[in-house]
Amino acid sequence: MMHLCTFSICLVGFAALALATERQQATPFGGVSHARTR
After folding, report:
1. Mind listing the pLDDT tens digit for each residue in 12-28?
2. H or E segment to which residue 1 belongs
3. Is 31 exposed, middle or buried (0-12, 13-18, 19+ CB in 10 A)?
């Protein structure tokens, strides 16, 4: 269970990081605008 939880957390973290990098590369200003809106 411990290994499965750790693997899932790492997988989600990696996916979030990849998505963030893709957003920054695609629309750097868009990411800032969304952050300011929130």
Report:
1. 999 998 888 877 665 55
2. none
3. middle
